[in-house]
Design brief:
CATH superfamily: Aldolase class I
Order of helices and strands: EEEHEHEHEHHEHEHEEEEEEHHH
Strand content: 15-25%
Largest sheet: 12 strands, mixed
Structural class: alpha/beta
CATH topology: TIM Barrel
Number of helices: 10
Length: 324
């Protein structure tokens, strides 16, 4: 097992396969001016599989999540999915959903088990303002395609922002209930490229739960190592989760690390230092050296991100460059 200095066992690897995206969500990317990684700087599928295999075989990692940017813009993604699925882990992906009608069946056949689809508003005009793309119907079609392809569970990620979409919490919960998918409400975090985040824009998890419970009675489900606290509808029609990254961080139970599209290993979403695994991969390093680099990085993991505290240091990268 790979254990960090605070006794947390690392079991989950988040892999960004591209920094590119076909949306421009306001809390993630600027409208213009992004400088994309040159193709030769992005890890190949074989390099990604090798890092993942070391994590699984040497350290017993149990789950892998594919992220971006938007992962479905990476060509031939089912090929990578098949490689990672062969490692025998719980394999999931986070996506904006717009390409799922085209690729969901192929991804499922390749071994992808679960998907999270981002959907922050059901109102066309507001969705367009948030994503800078007129595509809410396409994302809903992607969610339906994921269900039809047999992904289980299908989750809908909602970043809740004060004065932006906090009035849609119940509406989005209802949408998820009616489709048999699970909503995940996420507190707004300081990872937006425009650096417009402020504590006043955070809608606390307790407020989100209260809004939903006021319409649909709920009961708490145990959290475990998952980032979301889950709530089950008393009437039996599913559940939803809330990720309180700001008001009630789950750092004490965090079991995840990240690999960026260009091969930088990060022991925390908010890490300010990284380890360059691409240099090792392309410099002839063996698996022992890769494993040692991963272990050394995890050996420096801090207790928590300290959002809202004086000592908090904002990462130099935005969410799309790190990978969720």
């Amino acid at each position: 097992m790979l254990v960090d200095p605070h006794g947390r066992v690392v079991r989950d690897l988040r892999i960004s396969v591209t920094d590119r995206c076909n949306f421009r969500c306001t809390y993630c990317m600027p409208a213009e001016g992004m400088t994309w990684l040159p193709r030769d700087q992005v890890l190949t599928f074989e390099e990604i599989e090798r890092v993942a295999r070391v994590c699984v075989e040497r350290f017993g990692f149990e789950s892998i999540r594919i992220t971006g940017g938007e992962p479905t813009v990476r060509a031939h993604l089912p090929v990578l999915v098949e490689k990672l699925a062969a490692l025998g882990v719980d394999l999931a992906m986070t996506t904006n959903g717009i390409k799922l009608p085209e690729v969901a069946a192929d991804l499922r056949a390749a071994g992808l088990r679960r998907v999270n689809v981002s959907l922050d508003s059901l109102r066309p005009e507001r969705f367009t303002q948030l994503t800078r793309r007129d595509a809410v119907d396409a994302v809903v079609a992607g969610i339906d395609a994921a269900v039809a392809a047999g992904f289980d569970p299908v989750k809908v990620n909602v970043v809740v922002m004060r004065g932006v979409n906090d009035d849609e919490v119940v509406e989005l919960a209802t949408f998820a209930r009616e489709r048999g998918v699970e909503a995940r409400f996420i507190e707004f975090m300081p990872l937006d490229a425009d650096e417009a985040w402020s504590a006043e824009k955070v809608v606390p998890a307790a407020e989100i739960v209260a809004a939903i419970a006021g319409v649909y009675p709920v009961e708490t489900v145990s959290q475990g190592s998952e980032p979301a606290t889950r709530y089950r509808y008393v009437d039996g029609r599913g559940a939803f989760g809330v990720i309180a990254s700001v008001t009630a961080p789950f750092c004490g139970a965090c079991d995840r690390v990240r690999l960026t599209a260009e091969g930088k290993f990060r022991n925390c979403l908010f890490a300010v230092e990284e380890t360059d695994l691409r240099a090792l991969l392309r410099g002839g390093a063996d698996d022992e050296a890769l494993a040692a680099a991963v272990a050394a990085d995890v050996g420096g993991k801090w207790a928590g991100h300290s959002i809202g505290q004086v000592r908090f240091v904002r990462p130099a990268r935005s969410m799309s460059q790190i990978g969720g």
